[in-house]
Write a structure and sequence with these properties.
Blueprint lengths: L8 E2 L2 E2 L11 E5 L7 E7 L2 E12 L12 E8 L14 H15 L10 E11 L4 H15 L9 E8 L2 E4 L3 H6 L2 E7 L6 E4 L2 E2 L3 H36 L1
Parallel strand pairs: 6-7
Antiparallel strand pairs: 1-2, 3-4, 4-5, 5-7, 8-9, 8-10, 10-11, 10-12
Helix pairs in contact: 2-4
Bound molecules: adenosine-5'-diphosphate.
């Protein structure tokens, strides 16, 4: 929502001191939950997200089974304490939408034909939310799926670009998301560049859209390096312990 009293740039820098193409700080840890088949804890700016992956396992109830391939159930949930005013617990329109778009993005990259009648369950718990949680959740899901050893073509990754005060920027923060002009979350397969998720909130001209998409993809490629480093770190630690 636009608000002319709020200034999102000061001395050419964004409110949190970033340049237009800087990401917020990101920390990723793979394999943090021992009872899940794969897991990831991720901090991205003020976002704190835990992902637990289960499967492939027999899909229950049985009528949900697809005898040709596995089904993907991504479930995005925001904790009641994750936002400033307490969020009413349980699914709502927004969390159903995000669960659906993340499930569809993951379906494009997982080798589902290998596991007929199975389900792959991806639980995304947002513990602290500060804009960009669908990108952060999908990025953490990519690491957790890799940690679970589930075969996939690539590790999916997501990042948003957007427009604030008429300028294109990477990875909108909370005020930028609230008072900016547009937000463009994008998920890709970094190896092939295939787009797995693309949504847009607000308005961009076609030229701005093309530039913002390019910016988001560059952001995705940077985050992808952090995902790989987190997975390598986990298995390096395990090898050292053995
Ligand atoms: P994303 O988190 O992917 O950017 P949205 O654009 O829908 O998704 O939400 C932007 C931000 O708005 C969230 O990251 C969160 O900080 C905040 N938000 C979302 N839902 C609520 C809610 N029910 N109460 C308070 N803040 C919310």
């Amino acid at each position: 929502m636009k608000n002319d009293n709020i200034k999102l740039f000061r001395d050419g820098k964004r409110v949190d001191g970033r340049a237009t193409d800087d990401l917020r700080p990101i920390k990723i840890e793979a394999g943090v939950l021992h009872r899940a088949d794969g897991s990831c804890y991720l901090e991205w700016g003020g976002n704190k997200i835990m992902v637990a992956v289960y499967g492939p396992r027999e899909a229950i109830p049985r009528h949900t089974q697809n005898h040709l391939r596995a089904i993907v159930n991504a479930r995005y949930n925001m904790a009641a304490f994750s936002v400033e005013d307490r969020k009413r617990p349980g699914p709502d329109r927004r969390s159903r939408e995000i669960s659906k778009v993340i499930s569809e993005a993951l379906e494009k990259i997982l080798l589902l034909e290998k596991f007929p009648r199975a389900s792959i369950d991806v639980n995304i718990e947002v513990l602290n939310a500060e804009a960009g949680t669908r990108c952060a959740g999908l990025t953490a899901a990519g690491v957790a799926l890799a940690d679970a050893g589930i075969p996939m073509k690539d590790i999916p990754v997501a990042c948003a670009a957007g427009k604030i005060e008429g300028q294109l920027v990477l990875d909108l923060g909370k005020e930028e998301d609230n008072y900016g002009d547009a937000d463009l979350p994008v998920a890709i397969s970094p190896r092939t560049g295939e787009i797995l998720l693309l949504q847009m909130d607000g308005h961009l001209t076609f030229d701005e859209f093309e530039k913002a998409l390019d910016m988001a993809i560059k952001g995705c490629n940077k985050v992808s390096e952090l995902q790989k480093a987190a997975i390598i770190q986990k298995y390096k630690v395990e090898l050292e312990v053995e």
